[in-house]
Structures are given as structure tokens and as C-alpha cells.
Design goal:
alpha/beta, 4 domains, five-stranded mixed sheet, 26 helices, elongated
């Protein structure tokens, strides 16, 4: 409070500073040394006053209000009276037999201002009388945030338990019996219950109480008989003297236990702080092979079939040696049929249980059950199935089954085509309910598709040229364009780098494409590509291209070449007529847009096929041919999967339904195969000796 000698009682309040701060008061309160809590009813008054100063958000060195200053001056006056209080030093009184065990009685209480607990030891004298003495007490002020009386009473009960454990640990006495007394029926009833039925605050405290005490040791008494109430309200030093209730305990402790006004039969009723309990039934699915494999954990269709095939082999042979066998096509087909049947289980259950509902849902598809138990659709198109290429019926799959979506994602990832193409390819093998909805969702969530096909500003389309509308044989009217450049690797010197350019020929009639690779951007290099093209497809009647310098030069040189050829030479090259070369206007690439739009799809397929790899010239040319075949697999309609290749080869040459191996690309990148076996290309690429990623190919049109 000030520098100099300590104040005496007669100097208060005259010598107390006019500006009394929170820092001064806290310093004086912390100077009171009372580890056992013998004067807790008095010290709690100082704690309550400090709590009030925190409540009004008083700073450390701010002057407190006058009414609060008067309360502190009164407390400082009473502080001098504490020196006159005496306590019995020996807990064990005289006249007690050495074999007598004492009884431990602990009271607890709580109020809006504070909560606490006090412990007494009761002895039985040789003459039959009883004596009880104060042992220790604990007190806490209530939090500034308003808490319910029930929670404060329960917090006092927690202090009751902690003080009991402290006394039993530190004293060498063995107690005959323990009594824990509270004046709240609700708290006593809570302690009798299991902690899981209450909210977290109450449940943790009940669990702590039940961990160290027995519920049957807790008793209830009236509030006026609970001596712990002195801690929650505060008392002056004169009220806690040697013969006071605080030091001797309640008067009923001097009587036999049978006469104590305590009880345990309290009415429980509806206890507060109850947690809402929701009963949950554990409805587990049957332990089947499909549930153990769990198709929802797989992101690769081929991997699911391979894993299923090996597990089925283990089940059949009853040993794990079958897990390392080389899988055959029959094993993969068996695994696929297994998942088809698993997907059709709800449909089969509906067919067996409710034929009316089954007909209402699937009658339009004309389903029927095959000999192997698979439900197929398309009974009305039986003749079409007979004359189709694969001659197989189409199994029916549910929309919501993970297997259906996994196959749809598998088809879409092989080329990332549009919704129409994806639907057509899927329906060549499976008939999935709501397939259009599934295909749209897959394309919408496909990251490569969203990255490469951003929404661009559109423009009004012009009228189609006559060459696009006039019926004619394939490759009669052809559009040509160059794209690239591509970086190639040397044939002998693997570190050498070269340049190459892609050349695309587009049939206006069938929209088929022919893709080749030019060694350079010169007219001579382009003519070599053109001569390879006409050797395979024949001379077109008209050729359309941009007005590039190399294409103009090619037109002049081509005119000289065709004029000098006779009929025999034309026959040797498979050419019956010359062709007319037409150029679009300068800086007008949209006039050859029918070819430009196909370059977009070709670039996307090449990107998915080779990524950042640098291939040799012949390897890159092989990729171009296979990409051309993949692009020509585009269907003409959504009813039947009629491809461009069927006009050229009269049959399809892709193997969509065969399981394809997925090879990891160099540098940790995943390579999505597009019906293209680039394993040899990657093998040779890994022998370049470089440790980092190669230079990326430039795909600017």
C-alpha cells in the first residue's frame, strides 16, 4: 500500500491512501498465508471483492469507486482480528483409545458468488462422547460468466472429492467411515447416476467424483445445517473462533450417526443437464465377397477386375498361391460378370418379389434373364444383335451402383470424349439407367475436360460450303492444315533434338481424318506427306487449305507434277484424276474451320497420350496414326455406334472393351492410355540418361 512500516489497526482508515487500486488490494490479499484454508470464510470475502472489480473492468492502477473502497477498508480492519483466532493444534483429542478409528465428514456447497468444501474428523472418546475438529477447507469464487446453481453445487462436490483424496494421502490416519454431505438433492441424485447420460460439463465432473468416492457415501442435509455455506457467503474473524460452528462442526456431529439429520432417499424427478440420447441400431450388411472387396474404394475399372479375378481364384483353389497367377482373358471376363450380377441384385430381387413393379420399371427395355443369370435388354432388337459386330446382348446396370459409374468413368477417361460419344461407347457394352445424366456428371467433374475445354466467346456460324453437302465418295473433298511444332529425339544420338509438324487431312463427306508427320515446314516436306496420303486414300477432287506459303508452293509444284504424270503412273499411285487446290482468304482461319475444329480434338488426344514425353520421329508418327484411328471412332448418332472407320474399313479396328494396362509415365505423372500402346516409346525414353523432365511439345495451331 505504501513504503514504510506496516500499519497498525488504529491507523485504519486514516493512513489508507486516498487512491486505492486493484493492484494494492491484490497485493494485500496475496500476503495472507493460509494453505489449509482455516480462515477460508474470511478470505473468501476478499476474493469476492476482487471478483467485483474484475466485473466492472477496473484497470490495475485506476481508483476504485467509493462504495467499493469502503468495503475494502472494512476488510482491512477485520484483517487485524485474524491474529486473535486460535486453532487446536492436535487433531486427535485426549481420551481416545489408540485402536479407535476416526470418521471423516466433508461438507460442500455452492452459491452465485463462490463454492467450497470443508472437512472434519470425528472421534469417539472413551466415555462415549464424540468430538469433531476442523481439518482443512478449499474455496473458489464463481466464474464471471453466469453459471447455474446446479453447476456451482456440482463444482463444490468436485472440491469435496479432491479435498478427501488430499487428506487420505497426506495423513497417516485410517478412517472408519466417510461421509460426503451436500444440501442439493439434484447434485446428490446426479452422483448416483452414470455420467454418460449428462452433458459434457456435468458428465466429466460426475465421472471424477465416482472415480475416487462411492456413491453410497454421499448424503443430503438441509441448507441451514451445511457448514460449508459459511465459505460461500463469508464470515468475520469473530464468527470463526475456537468454539464456533466453523471449528467444531455442526452440533449433530456430537450425536450418534443414527441421529444425524441426513438422508439418502431423495426424489430424483427430471434431472437437469441431461443429454439427448439417440438410440442407433447397428444394421450391418451381410459379409459377402462384394462387400469385402468394396468397389467404392477403387478408381480404376481395370484394377477392380484384376483384383476381383485374383480373389475369385483364391476362393476357388482355397489357397493364396493363386494370387500370383498370370490372369487370362477368361479370368477378367469372369470378374466382370461377377460385378454385373452384383449390380443386378436389386433388379433380380424386384423381379422375384414383385413382378408388377418390375414390369412397370423395366418393361420398355424388354429385359430377359440369360442362361448365366445375367439380365440383358434389347429382346426386340434380337436380329440386330445377331448381325452386329460383337453379337452380344447388353446387360442392364443400375444408375446408383458404383460399378456402373466406375465403368462410365473408365470409358470417358480413354480419350475424354463428349457426352454423346461416351454414351454411345458405353451402350455398346452395357445399358445403364439414366446414362445421359451420368455421362454429363462425369464430364462436368472431369478435371482434364474442364481444364482444356473452357467456355469461349462464340460467334455466328456461316453457311456450309457445297463440298460439305454434296454426296460423294470418301476423300473426294479434303481439307488440310498443319499444326505443331513437336520436339523429336534423334534416332542415333539420343540427346539430339529435332522439329516436326503435324499434318491433318479431313474428309468433308465422312468427317474422317488422316494424320501424318512432316519432317519440316517446307513445301518439300509437306509434299512427301501429301504423296503418302494420296497413296493410301487416292487423289481428292478438291483440296481446301489456309493460304500458308508452304501450301501455296505445294499447289504450284503439285500442278507441275500432275501435268507430267501419265495414266500408268497415276494408276500406280491409285489416282484417277487431278485435284483442284482452293485457298482461304489471308488471316481467315475460320474459313477452314471444319479442319481447325478437328485439330482441337487431335491435340487433346495427343496430350493425353504422350504428355511431356519426347519421342523419336517414327514413334511419334505411330502415335499420330493411332490417334487418327481413335478420332475416327466418333459415332454418327446415339442410336447405333456407327463410326467413321466403318466407311473407310467396313469394320471397326479399335478394341474398346478389352482391358488395357495403365503404365506410369516418367517423372511421377499418370499417363492415360487412349487405345495406344506406348510402352515401347516409354522404354526407349527412359534410356535418354536425363534426370529431369524433357522439353514439352508445343501444340499451338
Amino acid at each position: 500500500m505504501r513504503q514504510g512500516p506496516d500499519l497498525r489497526g488504529d491507523q485504519i482508515p486514516s493512513e489508507i491512501p486516498s487512491v486505492l487500486t486493484k493492484r494494492m488490494c491484490l497485493s494485500q490479499v496475496n500476503g495472507i498465508y493460509d494453505p489449509l484454508g482455516l480462515v477460508a470464510p474470511f478470505t473468501i470475502k476478499a476474493k469476492i471483492l476482487l471478483r467485483k472489480m474484475w466485473g466492472i473492468k477496473l484497470d490495475w492502477d485506476d481508483s476504485m469507486p467509493e462504495n467499493m473502497r469502503k468495503d475494502w477498508i472494512e476488510f482491512f480492519k477485520e484483517l487485524f482480528e485474524v491474529a486473535d483466532i486460535t486453532f487446536q493444534r492436535c487433531i486427535k483429542p485426549e481420551g481416545v483409545d489408540s485402536q479407535t478409528k476416526p470418521t471423516l465428514i466433508v461438507f460442500s456447497d455452492g452459491s452465485e458468488q463462490a463454492f467450497g468444501t470443508v472437512a472434519y474428523i470425528r472421534w469417539m472418546l472413551n466415555d462415549g462422547r464424540y468430538v469433531s475438529n476442523l481439518v482443512a477447507s478449499k474455496s473458489r469464487i464463481a466464474p464471471i460468466e453466469v453459471a447455474s446453481i446446479v453447476r456451482l453445487e456440482l463444482s463444490g462436490a468436485v472440491l469435496n472429492k479432491r479435498l478427501t483424496c488430499f487428506i487420505k494421502k497426506e495423513m497417516r490416519l485410517q478412517f472408519d467411515r466417510e461421509f460426503h454431505i451436500v444440501d442439493s438433492e439434484i447434485v446428490r441424485s446426479m452422483i448416483q447416476k452414470q455420467s454418460y447420460g449428462f452433458k459434457t460439463f456435468v458428465a466429466t465432473r460426475i465421472g471424477e467424483i465416482q472415480e475416487a468416492t462411492e456413491p453410497e457415501d454421499w448424503w443430503w442435509c438441509k441448507g441451514e445445517l451445511n457448514v460449508a455455506d459459511l465459505i460461500t457467503r463469508g464470515k468475520t474473524p469473530s464468527e470463526i473462533g475456537p468454539e464456533s460452528t466453523w471449528q467444531r462442526g455442526p452440533t449433530f456431529l456430537q450425536r450418534p450417526i443414527e441421529e444425524w439429520p441426513i438422508q439418502q432417499s431423495c426424489s430424483e424427478g427430471n434431472l437437469p443437464e441431461r443429454a439427448k440420447i439417440i438410440m442407433v441400431a447397428d444394421a450391418r450388411e451381410a459379409d459377402t465377397l462384394a462387400n469385402r472387396i468394396d468397389v467404392s474404394r477403387y478408381s480404376s475399372y481395370n484394377k477392380l477386375l484384376r483384383v476381383t479375378a485374383r480373389i475369385l481364384a483364391i476362393y476357388d483353389n482355397k489357397n493364396f498361391s493363386s494370387a500370383t497367377k498370370v490372369l487370362s482373358a477368361e479370368d477378367i471376363q469372369r470378374a466382370e460378370i461377377f460385378w454385373i450380377k452384383e449390380c443386378q441384385k436389386p433388379i433380380m430381387k424386384t423381379l422375384n418379389d414383385d413382378k408388377v413393379t418390375f414390369d412397370k420399371m423395366y418393361a420398355k427395355l424388354c429385359p430377359q434373364v440369360r442362361d448365366d443369370g445375367v439380365i440383358v435388354v434389347g429382346a426386340r432388337a434380337g436380329r440386330y444383335v445377331h448381325f452386329s459386330y460383337n453379337k452380344q446382348e447388353v446387360p442392364l446396370l443400375l444408375y446408383r451402383h458404383p460399378f456402373s459409374k466406375l465403368y462410365a468413368v473408365h470409358v470417358h477417361n480413354r480419350g475424354h470424349p463428349g457426352v454423346q460419344t461416351t454414351v454411345s461407347k458405353i451402350r455398346s457394352k452395357f445399358w445403364i439407367i439414366n446414362l445421359y445424366k451420368m455421362a454429363k456428371s462425369i464430364r462436368h467433374h472431369c478435371v482434364p475436360c474442364r481444364r482444356q475445354e473452357k467456355d469461349m466467346v462464340g460467334q455466328k456460324m456461316g453457311d456450309l460450303p457445297l463440298a460439305r453437302l454434296k454426296p460423294s465418295p470418301p476423300w473426294s473433298y479434303v481439307g488440310v492444315d498443319l499444326f505443331g511444332l513437336f520436339t523429336t529425339r534423334g534416332e542415333v544420338n539420343k540427346r539430339a533434338r529435332g522439329k516436326a509438324y503435324g499434318v491433318i487431312f479431313n474428309c468433308f463427306t465422312t468427317r474422317a481424318v488422316h494424320i501424318d508427320l512432316a519432317v519440316d515446314y517446307s513445301s518439300t516436306g509437306f509434299l512427301q506427306v501429301l504423296r503418302r496420303f494420296v497413296s493410301l486414300r487416292g487423289y481428292p477432287s478438291e483440296m481446301y487449305s489456309d493460304g500458308g506459303s508452304q501450301l501455296v508452293g505445294a499447289s504450284k509444284e503439285l500442278k507441275q507434277v500432275t501435268e507430267g504424270w501419265d495414266a500408268n503412273k497415276l494408276h500406280e499411285f491409285g489416282i484417277s484424276n487431278g485435284m483442284t487446290w482452293k485457298f482461304s482468304m489471308a488471316d481467315s482461319p475460320w474459313q477452314n474451320g471444319v479442319t481447325e475444329i478437328l485439330i482441337k480434338g487431335v491435340k487433346k488426344a495427343i496430350n493425353h497420350a504422350i504428355g511431356n514425353q519426347i519421342l523419336q520421329f517414327h514413334e511419334l508418327q505411330t502415335v499420330f496414326y493411332e490417334v487418327a484411328n481413335l478420332v475416327n471412332e466418333r459415332p454418327l448418332d446415339d442410336i447405333q455406334l456407327i463410326r467413321k472407320t466403318e466407311f473407310i474399313f467396313v469394320r471397326t479396328i479399335s478394341f474398346l472393351d478389352e482391358p488395357q494396362e495403365e503404365y506410369p509415365a516418367d517423372h511421377g505423372e499418370k499417363l492415360t492410355t487412349l487405345d495406344i500402346d506406348l510402352n515401347s516409346c516409354r522404354t526407349s525414353s527412359r534410356h535418354t540418361g536425363s534426370s529431369g523432365p524433357e522439353t514439352t511439345s508445343h501444340l499451338s495451331s
